Amino acid sequence: LVDSSRHFLTMASLEATIDAIAYSKLNVLHWHIVDAQSFPFQSESYPNLTAAGAYNSQSVYSHTDVTALIQYGLERGVRIIMEFDTPAHTYAWGLGYEKQGLTMCGAAEPWSTYCAEPPCGQLDPTNDFTYELVGGLWKEVAGLTPDEFVHIGGDEVNAACWGVDSAGAATLMGKYVSRLQPMVSALGKGMIQWQGAFDAGVRPAKDTVIQLWKPDSFRAILDAGYRMLLS
User: Fold this and answer.
1) Which residues are catalytic?
2) Is the pTM above the cut of 0.85?
3) How many CB atoms lie within 10 A of CB 98?
4) What angle do CA 40, 82, 210 make, to 5 degrees?
5) Which strands, in side-by-side order, build the sheet including 28-34?
6) Judging by beta carbons within 10 Å of its beta carbon (0-12, 13-18, 19+), is residue 231 exposed, middle or buried?
7) Which parts of the chain sit beneath pLDDT 70?
8) How far apart are CA 135 and CA 150, in angstroms?
């Protein structure tokens, strides 16, 4: 996994990482391309995501950059699976769409109450514009990547950010996943998500791949019949 949001990575650096992966006889690069800190993917459908959310106008990845990097990987036997982590970790998303109310609890303090790390912000799962934007963004991304999977994130949702208790957060997360899943499926892509939603009691469609980073859920995910990535 490489994270190009917290620390922008140049194309040369990403290519060097792919070379190292190939030398090590590995074949997948998990590209965590955006997060709360910045939105470097240069969306053509929703340009304010990048205009307001990137560190600066040079710290971005154009469509040409993305397709070139994917091709660079394929020529070396390395798949690139792109992750746009939602609904948490989305402070940078909301900067360009404040009037539309895309995110909630933006940069709230004390941050430890409202998110896993600052700056806080989560997509509003009750706002129809959220699904308009996320659906349009995934359509844009799906046209760039030939891989059969995309990664929707789904980790570290904070109930306080949404102004609800843990049960309410699970309900809202379930609503979000249930609306996002058919959008992704309609694009011909399989969905990967972090284990956070599962741990909260949300059960996505059975063709979802759940990525595990806390070993305590290992048996429960297997027993529920899901495919799993252990990281």
Assistant:
1) 156
2) yes
3) 12
4) 130
5) 2-3, 28-34, 79-86, 149-153, 190-194, 209-212, 227-230
6) exposed
7) none
8) 13
